[in-house]
Amino acid sequence: MENPAVVQVAPVIPDVEVSAKASRRRYTAKEKKKILDEVDACTKAGEIGALLRKKGIYSSSLFRWREARERGELDALSPKKRGPVAKVPNPLAQENAELKRALAKSEARLKRAEALVELQKKISELMGIQLPPEDATP
């Protein structure tokens, strides 16, 4: 006979999600320096190779990190931002563009005003109204 107080529970299986594309491992400057210190501490033959296999690092990466450390480039030990370099806008170029827009707008208003004056002259001729000469001051 079974004991009614004992309840059997099915084991819980964790939901494992696998990404479609593996992401590249990036090391911070601090991690790179720590790994370089560990590599420098290796004295026996094969220790460096074992350390690189354990950490999952290629020897070419180690070579680049060593060169950067020798050059004293701390920025070279941190991951570099990818993509094009952002251009700083020139304030004079922005002012120049604004002035060009203002000039184009003024020229368009001038053309409309001249067209209206010509229209007024033609209407005055048709109606027989004498306009003052353009040289005369009001």
In words, what does this structure look like?
This protein has helices spanning 29-41, 47-55, 59-71, 91-127. The protein is mainly α and 138 residues long. It starts with 28 loop residues before the first helix and ends in an 11-residue tail after the last helix.
What's the total helix number? 4
Assess the beta-strand content as a share of residues.
under 5%
Query: What's the rounded overall pLDDT mean?
Result: 82
Q: What fraction, in percent, of the residue positions are helical?
A: 40-55%
Query: Which stretches are poorly predicted, pLDDT < 50 over at least 5 residues?
Result: none
The overall strand count is 0
Q: Decide which structural class fits the backbone.
A: mainly alpha
Termini Cα gap: 123 Å
From the alpha-carbon coordinates, what is the Rg to the nearest angstrom?
A: 40 Å
Shape: elongated
Query: For the report, how would you describe the main beta sheet?
Result: none
Order of helices and strands: HHHH
Key structural traits:
138 residues, mainly alpha, 4 helices, 0% strand
Compose a concise summary of this entry.
This protein has 138 residues and is mainly alpha-helical. It is 52% helix and 0% strand.
Helices and strands in order:
Layout: H1 29-41, H2 47-55, H3 59-71, H4 91-127
